[in-house]
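Support request, please re-run this one:
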Amino acid sequence: MIRRIIYVVIAITIGLTPVVHLNAQTIEPQYDMYTDPDHTGSHPVTELWVANYAPMSNHQRIMIMFNLEPYMGGAIDSAFLNLDRFFGCPHGDPTHTKIYEITEPWDESWPENVHISHGGTEWASYTFSYNGWHEIDITSLVNEWLDGTITNYGLVIQALAGNKWSKFYSREASSSVRPYLELFGYSGVEEKNETVTQTLKVEMGLNPFFSTCRIVVPEGTLVEIFRVDGRRVYRIQNTGSELIWKPSESIGSGIYFIYATRGEQSAVGRLIYLKR
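Re-run finished. Output below.
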C-alpha cells in the first residue's frame, strides 16, 4: 500500500486563542430554493434540486443566501458550504456543477420557473457523486462578500449540460439535514489590524488523508486533535520539529481539528480523515 501522508505546517498567530469546537462560525441559510423553468406546480419546500439534462427537460438550479451582516468588514481563513444530498440519478451518474454569485436581490417569493441572473465568475466547481454530506470550498467568494467587493445576494448552483439530478435538503427540512455555511478563522476589523503572524507558513498536502498524518510544529508545542463534537482523540507535547498521527482503529472517518498551543500562542488546523 502506498503510504499517504498529509503535511501540515501550522502557523502560530499572536493574540487569538480559538476554542476548537467553537472555531467554526455556523450559519444556516436566510433563503434557499430552486428554480425550474420547465415544470409548473409548487416545488417541495424541503428540497433543493439541481440538474441540466435536456432529454428529460430538467434544468433546475439551486439558490442559497446567507445573512453575513454580522461579519461584514472582517475576513476568514476558509468557508465551506455544506449540503446533504438524499437523491441522485438511479443509474449512478454524478452531477457536475459550478457555483456563481447571484447579481440581483431575491427572496423565497421569487418565481419558481425563472432562473435568477448571476455573474460570470466561477467561484467553485463540485461533483456530487454520492448521497450524504458534501462540503464545498467557497472561501474566495465569501471574502469578496465580506470586504464589500461583491454585494451579497447569495449564490446559485448550476449543473453542467448533460448532467442529471442531485437533490438536497433545504433549510425547511429537519435541523439535522439543513444546509449550512461554516466560517473558519474569522477575524473582525479590529482583530485584523492587531493580529501579528510569525514567519511560519501554512501548507497543506494531501487532504483528505487515509492512514497517516504528519504534523510539523515548533518544538515544545502542545498538539491536541479533536472531533467536531469537541471530544479529544489525541494529545502530545511535541519534543521535535514534527510528529506522526496514525488514528487508532476506534477512530472513524470524519473532520478533525488540530489545536496547537505554545505559551500564549495558538493555532488550529483542519483535517479530513477517510478510513480505509
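The domain at 5-22+196-273 is CATH 2.60.40 (Immunoglobulin-like). The chain has a mean pLDDT of 82.
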